[in-house]
Amino acid sequence: MEIKIQPMGGTQTNCYIVTIDGKDLIIDPGMGATKWVVDNVTNPVAILNTHGHFDHVWSNQEVQETLKVPIYCPKGDVFMLKNCPLGQPTPPSTADYEIVGDEKLTIEGIPIQYRLFKGHTPGCSIIEIEDVWFSGDFLFQQSIGRWDFPFSSGEEMVKSLEKAMDIKSDYTIYPGHGLSTTLKKEQEVMPYWIQQVKHTI
Fold first, then answer.
1. Contact 74, 124 (CB under 8 A)
2. How far apart are alpha carbons 199 and 68 in whole angstroms?
């Protein structure tokens, strides 16, 4: 597996291109992502969204129209592709596939596991490919996603952190913003974040 990373837009949202067996998966094409994506793929097969916030889906439509590939988005966030809850003028896009819960799928022979971790958004998910998590805005290096946005939930964030705490395997984490980390490292600080979230709910 080869992973290319490029931060996009004012929010420096990480866009990823994951190449396996000569096939390219595009994860979270944010603001201004299209040219970089087009310049760095040879055989694109899908656009994968971790969640529906504008800075992760801004170029969905443009990339899809340019490359003719389907969009996969967690079902709980599909409405955000049409109506940004943060008031941004996001170009609207449509999910070709709505991912339900912890859904496993295979795209062009590539096994992919979505894991739903609600809280930041109703559909906030990580995308697991082999031993890597593309964590969107659920987990960052020593931090977690905000739970004070419209449609966010502190109660769900606590449940999601507890769910992540119980996972025994380790994974390399590539987050939606910032540097990579590992699940084991982030599990060390999850009790702190659980308490921080609980203080606000």
1. yes
2. 46
Give the residues across from 98 on adjacent strands. 73
124 neighbors 145 (Cβ within 8 angstroms): yes
pTM as predicted: 0.97
Structure tokens at 43: 């055989």
Domain 2-198, CATH class in plain words:
alpha beta
DSSP 91: P
Q: What is the DSSP letter of 58?
A: T
Residue 127: per-residue pLDDT: 98
Element (H, E) at 47: strand 44-48
Every domain of the chain and the residues it spans: 2-198
Tokens of 149: 């946005």
The arithmetic mean of pLDDT across residues 154-170, rounded, is: 98
For residue 39, give the 3-state DSSP assignment. Answer: helix
Residue with tokens 């109506």: 83
